Amino acid sequence: MKKIKLVSKIELAGLYDWLQHPEAGGIDLFIGSVRNHAQGKEVLKLVFEGYEPMALHQMEKLADIAAGRWPVKKLLMVHALGIKNIGEPVVVIGVACAHRDDAFEACRFLIDELKKTVPIWKKEYFTDHTVWVNAHP
């Protein structure tokens, strides 16, 4: 079972509960949030944009790959779009498996591949300029 979404605001409450599965002894939950610095400068905020149909399609594809490689019981991938302030969650990857090693490996694969292949772009706002990051795919 999987949950894949693009949202304007990530609500963390309930995501862990959704990942629960009676056969899962290992649940890995990765939360990426906005930090207050990058490139040695103070970050004021981030803005995320994405090509939603393609992003969701690619996220589904990655979920299917992960489910084919690891014995995944449940999987979630949620990414935020729009303006995000310091401390706000921007991406959540969750994997429930019978064993922790599988959950860790699948979760790491999903976040790494999401950042490489999903058409979501990040603009960093500094005190003196802005810059686009993740010019992919």
TrEMBL record:
Record's keyword terms, sorted: Molybdenum cofactor biosynthesis
Alphabetized Gene3D superfamilies for the sequence: Molybdopterin biosynthesis MoaE subunit
Annotated InterPro entries: MoaE_sf, Mopterin_biosynth_MoaE
Ribosomal protein found in the keyword field: no
Annotated GO MF terms: molybdopterin synthase activity
Top EC class for this record: transferase
Enzyme Commission number(s): 2.8.1.12
Pfam families tied to this protein: MoaE
Pathway: Cofactor biosynthesis; molybdopterin biosynthesis
One of the GO biological process terms: Mo-molybdopterin cofactor biosynthetic process
CDD domains listed in its UniProt record: MoaE (cd00756)
Reactions it catalyzes: 2 [molybdopterin-synthase sulfur-carrier protein]-C-terminal-Gly-aminoethanethioate + cyclic pyranopterin phosphate + H2O = molybdopterin + 2 [molybdopterin-synthase sulfur-carrier protein]-C-terminal Gly-Gly + 2 H(+)
Record has Metal-binding as a keyword: no
Domain of life of the source: Bacteria
Family indicated by similarity: Belongs to the MoaE family.
Assembly and binders: Heterotetramer of 2 MoaD subunits and 2 MoaE subunits. Also stable as homodimer. The enzyme changes between these two forms during catalysis.
Protein name per the record: Molybdopterin synthase catalytic subunit
